[in-house]
Amino acid sequence: MAVVPHVGQPPLPNVSLRPGAVAVPALASQIRPALVLPERETRELIAQARLHDVGNGGHFAAGPAGIQVWSGPFDGPGGTRGSAVHLGSVDWSYNTPVKHYATIYRAMVTADGVARGETTASILARVLALTGLSVDGTRLTMPMPPARDPFRQRSRWPTAVTDPGS
């Protein structure tokens, strides 16, 4: 990765990403229609993911954008991942469609997850199973679009036509 300094600034040393720092999806599925978790289920799911956190001997890591699924607890020095492998994640939009709801819109599996037999459906099912929820839960369905705003329609009154020759 090349880094270009701003004009007039000293050159920067080479910058590189740490290997494994960014999860690269091998499989990703958009969940359509989206799976909506009401406030109670969202709070319970986050609480259960934290209870079964990789730092507490579990397989999950909850964050503001979703829940990651790992092969096991973080057993490295100082709480680092050690031998744990990131298998996949379930991504959501929090506070959507209303406050404290979560709209699950994607499940992702890493290459390590695929190698261990995970699918987007199995990752989603593992996360939802934390609270006994089913993959066939409440879906967000979009109603028919509303009728066009009558005030934005073209005017019903004839417009004046000018004769360019006059």
UniProtKB/TrEMBL annotation:
Residues 142-166 are annotated as: Disordered. This is Uncharacterized protein. It comes from Acidothermus cellulolyticus (strain ATCC 43068 / DSM 8971 / 11B). The lineage of its organism: Bacteria, Bacillati, Actinomycetota, Actinomycetes, Acidothermales.
